[in-house]
Amino acid sequence: MKKLLFLLTLVFLFSCNNEKNQNTAQTSDTKKASEIKKRLETYINPLDIDYTYMVYNSTQNKSYRSGADPAVIEFKGEYYMFVTRSFGYWHSTDLINWNFIKPEQWFFEGSNAPTAFNYKDSLVYFAGNPAGYGSILYTDDPKGGKWTPTASISTDIQDSELFIDDDGQTYLYWGSSNVNPLQVKMLNKDDRFLETGVRKELFNLDEEKHGWERFGENNFHPTLKEGYMEGASMTKHNGKYYLQYAAPGTQFNVYADGVYIGDTPLGPFKYMKNNPMSFKPGGFTNGAGHGITVKQTNGQYWHFATMALASNSQWERRLSMFPTYFDADGLMYSNTSYGDYPRFGANHPTKAGEHNGWMLLSYKGAATVSSSLMQIKKFTSDDDAVEVTELPLEKNADGQIISKVLTDEDPKTFWVADANDDKQWLTIEMLKPGNINAFQLNFHDHESGIYTRTEGLKHQFTIETSMDGINWQTVVDRSTSERDTPNAYIVLDEAVKAKFVRYNNVKVPGANFAMSEFRVFGLGLEDKPTGVTGFKVKREADRRDVSFSWDAVKGAQGYNIRWGIAKDKLYQSWQVYNTNEHFMRSLDRDTPYYFTIEAFSENGISVKSDITYAE
After folding, report:
1. Is 130:107 a contact under the CB 8 Å cutoff?
2. 469 DSSP assignment
3. What does DSSP say about strands 473-478 and 536-539: parallel, antiparallel, or unpaired?
4. How many Cβ atoms are within 10 Å of 348's Cβ, its own excluded?
5. Domain named F5/8 type C: which ranges (predicted)?
């Protein structure tokens, strides 16, 4: 009997231990799968956050969302993003998923061109009063939203950047003008941030030498030649001080950030030869200026910047995030190539922020819609000139309303439905079938009647796919969603093969359902395009200008031109669609450059052409 009990005990213990090992293995597998999924997480520009409706321009009954002038900091291993006139800020643990925090005390009209600084993980300092003067706030609990103001410390300050060096010396950089240079003054952080008496003018734009600093869309304006210098931001790296600045204007596709490098926070500063360091003039969403560079906990740098939308207003903007690096020569640059396509998230071990290979499937797809109040094409070039073209109503052979603006890769075109209810829909027949991985829905604000931060807004809809346009399957169901997603980015768990995509509206913010672009990403089923031939580069008499031409590649949607100051420093790019020529006004006059080009389509990206040198 004792022997039997002993044997039964052994069996029981073995069974328990085996079950424990199985549970441990399952837990380990689950954890590993979760980590892999996290590493494969992606994001897209513009960032998918719940942008705030602006109080600015409300006197003109202009209702639109905007996000601009980001100040992003790391504090105790997590991240906080402050954005112009947002009546609060966003928090993230991974630089991809952001949640809004409404602070207990804040500036009445929301912060304007904010600055924030994490001082040794003890306090976060913040400034950005829309009136140009006021307190610097501070907190040791930004997640809780409790802030304390200092007494008033500055007047006539816009686009400020607060920087506290390792030795505790404190500097305030500022400037927003097409006449005046950036300036800096020293403050005493231990005495209400009072000025110490040290004040200095630093540098100004030099449009005659730097083509990318010239005012206007594509760096051209018929009358105004002086660009705006603004958005100072300081990054210290390997003992050098990288003072970043934005030019030539926030409403333009060529809005960019450049850099001057100094050995001290007060300079003297020297123009960086590979400028601009953050530049995205082509593609669907343009601009990469007035930003800030933040260091991730793993050492990776990221540049958060402002992207131009400028449809309802020239101040209508969105946010972007690009991986940023310092090369062996100490030059700072960002990777903005295919910058509005899906990109690997910040947790990817080797390719964080790089384009993940998913291509655009929906370009020039045949879009039909349920109704059409209007279809509009806008162009905003400066304070006064806004061209508005209402497109004529078109129908296909089946009597369905056509909407070409939904697949044209132009952020300033949009379609407005007759209503905002569950009877509104849009369908895209893609040119060819493909494997769909993700969607980006760029909703448009049309007379929304909202003028400030408003809680409880939600975008509710479903998305279906089909191979034949007859048999449909639901792949996204947000019909009861509580999320506010004006630039919704949705990744499918598994790729779905389809030729048709249909969006079914339930309800979105505003009086009318309206959309600028419905973008579908994945991979086509055919071969990548062949390499580009006949690539010609001609620097014009004005050395800031350059013209390109090349042989059209069969099946290509467009082309990506890359250039830089050396063969191994091709840091800049300009993505163009549906053309085999391009004219650019963005070069530095006295700098020789190297150029290459590649073709792209829904099936992938071609090999690069041989590198061309232009004196």
Report:
1. yes
2. S
3. unpaired
4. 19
5. 369-523
- β partners of residue 306: 289, 319
Q: Are residues 155 and 132 in contact, defined by beta-carbon separation less than 8 angstroms? A: yes
Q: How confident is the model at residue 62 (pLDDT cuts 50, 70, 90)?
A: confident
Helix (H) or strand (E) holding 298: none
User: In the structure encoding, which two tokens stand for residue 242, read together?
Assistant: 């990288």
The token duo for 538 is 């001609």
pLDDT of residue 104: 87
pLDDT the model gives residue 382: 54
Reduced to 3 states (helix: H, G, I; strand: E, B; else coil), residue 327 is coil
The secondary structure element, H or E, covering residue 196 is strand 194-201
Tell me the pLDDT tens digit for each residue of 231-245: 999 999 999 999 999
Q: Are strands 487-507 and 401-402 parallel, antiparallel or unpaired?
A: unpaired
pTM above 0.90, yes or no: yes
Using only C-alpha atoms, the chain has a radius of gyration, in whole angstroms, of: 26
Check pLDDT > 90 for residue 37.
no
> What is the distance between the alpha carbons of residues 105 and 82, in angstroms, rounded to a whole number?
14
The pLDDT value given to residue 13: 44
Q: Say if residue 24 is exposed, middle or buried (CB neighbours under 10 Å; 0-12, 13-18, 19+).
A: exposed
CA distance 156 to 158: 7
Helix (H) or strand (E) holding 149: strand 148-149
